[in-house]
């Protein structure tokens, strides 16, 4: 059976990106994004906001950390990842997040995110199926993260 895991988001960051480095030297950046949806319900216009947790690895993590801050718009292409862990109190916890695979900075230089005339992009070289992961891709497991609980 075929599987497909692709997420495309355009929204604004809800908090400043948090950059960390794994013991093996790989950069990992975690941040949140708000994505709005406006729709009509009868004669009224409704707005719905979805909050999404995101994680970027390698060079993308460094770029996001350097050029994007709370409130800035960002276009993301990625994949869903389900994390589960046990809290210190022994409760089972879980979270669905998006792992960034490609991104595009959306602001202008005046927005302090280095976007240039309206936009700029950074997309790593696409890898073929079965090839090894580049440094900008997430590792197969998060076992090399400094903490055993998602940040």
Automatic annotation (TrEMBL):
Q: Which domain of life is it from?
A: Bacteria
Q: Where is the composition biased (Low complexity)?
A: 129-142
User: CDD domains annotated for this entry?
Assistant: SSB_OBF
Protein keywords: DNA-binding
Task: List, in alphabetical order, the Gene Ontology terms for molecular function in this entry.
Answer: single-stranded DNA binding
Q: Which GO terms describe its cellular component?
A: nucleoid
Q: What protein am I looking at?
A: Single-stranded DNA-binding protein
């Amino acid at each position: 059976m075929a599987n497909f895991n692709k997420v495309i988001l355009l929204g604004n960051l809800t908090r400043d990106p948090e950059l960390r480095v794994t013991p093996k030297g790989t950069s990992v950046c975690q941040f949140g994004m708000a994505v709005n949806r406006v729709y009509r319900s009868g004669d009224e216009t409704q707005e719905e906001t979805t909050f999404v947790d995101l994680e970027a690895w390698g060079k993308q993590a460094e770029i996001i950390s350097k050029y994007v801050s709370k409130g800035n718009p960002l276009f993301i292409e990625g994949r869903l990842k389900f994390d589960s862990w046990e809290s210190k109190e022994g409760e089972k916890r879980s979270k669905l997040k998006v792992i960034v695979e490609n991104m595009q900075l959306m602001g202008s230089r005046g927005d302090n995110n280095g976007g240039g005339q309206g936009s700029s992009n950074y997309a790593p070289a696409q890898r073929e199926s079965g090839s090894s992961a580049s440094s900008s891709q997430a590792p197969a497991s998060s076992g090399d993260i400094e903490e055993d609980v998602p940040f």
